[in-house]
Design goal:
Layout lengths: L1 H46 L7 H15 L9 H13 L9 H4 L2 H12 L12 H52 L2 H17 L8 H7 L1 H5 L6 H16 L3 H10 L5 H13 L3 H5 L4 H18 L9 H12 L12 H5 L2 H37 L9
């Protein structure tokens, strides 16, 4: 029996873990599939578009040819005029005149664009040009942004649970260390004496005998002679089954005999997991200073790794870029030379957005509490004092 029960327990434990992880994996897998589908669509639509040389492009070439023709041999005299004319002419140029769409809208480039869309970062250096691409971008963002927020909320619960448990364990460890420092030898001895006195006062009750159990039954008190040994034995077994048999044994017996009977309970647990999304973030209560420190360390780690493949960025520029990305500001002033390497950083972006989201939520709660205190303080000041009239 022991050899057969252990595999059953292992299977049940695996099923419980699977149904507990299933909602979180479902959200993440849906977001990944959605990003890959968007990358395929945008790379096909925007990458295969035809570049039409417009009249503005011809005028640009004519102006450039005119400026280069009128240059004199002595560059020192016309250097400032040449710089101003070239700067003004380049400001009128469009990037599509000099870039092949297939070089921008590759699969990884399109995937990077999709990530910037549903994360609401929107750097602005890559954008759809065709009318179909613009309509598709609006439709893609309409469904992608809620899915991304759902993933952020779901993963925020996991991160909030980890942070709250870590913070509570840290507080317990801190209290133990303080208690060990404050506890002197005399105080500990007094505590031990008090414990020994309390233990000496405890009265140990021995278990009841069979006759005492029978005397406690009302039926035995009325008719003690009419009961036979078999009837007394059945009464004891019935009483033991009524009080000692756990309720979960019936569910285990159903599961082992007919697993279909326990599916309703399993599905109700899965539905409960879906309904509890976002509850752990609401319960999180850690200091805002600790969250700011976590954000600083998190961004600093990425800022130290990013310049290894983005050689134009130093630590300060990489720190600025990561902060603008994780806060979904996305100015687009810092462009990446290798965006497909940054795609491997997508998990970092999602977790970082989780941390920033939790920090903003905690800051929002603190700000609401501050407003409540200020309003209550101002209300108490403006309340007229009660006048006491003589009787």
């Amino acid at each position: 029996m022991a050899s057969t029960s252990q595999p059953l327990r292992g299977k049940r434990a695996c099923k419980k873990i699977f149904w507990a992880v299933f909602p979180h994996a479902c959200f993440i897998l849906s977001l990944v599939i959605y990003a890959f589908l968007g990358a395929l669509m945008f790379s096909h639509i925007e990458g295969n578009r035809k570049v039409n040389l417009s009249e503005e492009y011809r005028q640009f070439l004519q102006s450039l040819w005119y400026i280069s023709r009128n240059l004199s041999d002595n560059m020192t005299e016309n250097e400032e005029v040449f710089k101003e004319e070239i700067r003004g002419l380049l400001n009128t140029a469009e990037r599509d005149w000099f870039v092949n769409p297939k070089d921008i809208w590759t699969f990884f480039g399109s995937l990077f664009f999709c990530c910037t869309v549903f994360t609401t970062v929107g750097y602005g250096n890559t954008y759809p040009v065709t009318r179909a691409g613009k309509y598709l971008c609006m439709l893609y963002a309409l469904f992608g942004i809620p899915l991304m927020f759902l993933v952020l909320t779901d993963m925020g619960d996991i991160l909030a649970t980890v942070l709250s448990k870590s913070y509570n364990e840290f507080r317990k460890l801190q209290s133990k260390i303080l208690a060990s420092k404050l506890c002197s030898g005399s105080m500990c001895n007094k505590g031990d004496e008090a414990k020994s006195r309390a233990q000496s006062k405890v009265v140990i009750n021995e278990p009841l005998t069979i006759m005492e159990v029978l005397k406690s039954q009302p039926g035995v008190k009325r008719k003690p002679i009419k009961y036979r040994n078999a009837e007394i034995f059945e009464m004891l077994i019935a009483r033991e089954n009524a009080y000692t048999k756990p309720a979960r044994n019936r569910s285990i017996e159903r599961w082992s005999s007919c697993p279909e009977l326990a599916r309703g309970k399993t599905m109700s647990r899965v539905m409960e997991n879906f309904n509890n999304i976002g509850k752990q973030v609401e319960k999180l209560d850690v200091p805002i200073v600790l969250m700011v420190l976590v954000i600083f360390v998190y961004i600093s780690c990425a800022a130290a790794l990013l310049p290894k493949w983005e050689t134009r960025l130093d630590f300060q520029e990489a720190f600025y870029f990561c902060f603008i990305t994780l806060t979904t500001i996305g100015f687009g002033d810092t462009q990446l030379e290798h965006p497909k390497f940054f795609l491997f950083f997508s998990l970092y972006i999602i977790i970082g957005m989780e941390i920033v989201f939790i920090a903003f939520k905690l800051g929002q709660d603190r700000l609401i509490g501050l407003y409540k205190k200020v309003i209550s303080f101002c209300g108490e000041k403006k309340m007229p004092s009660k006048k006491v009239y003589p009787k």
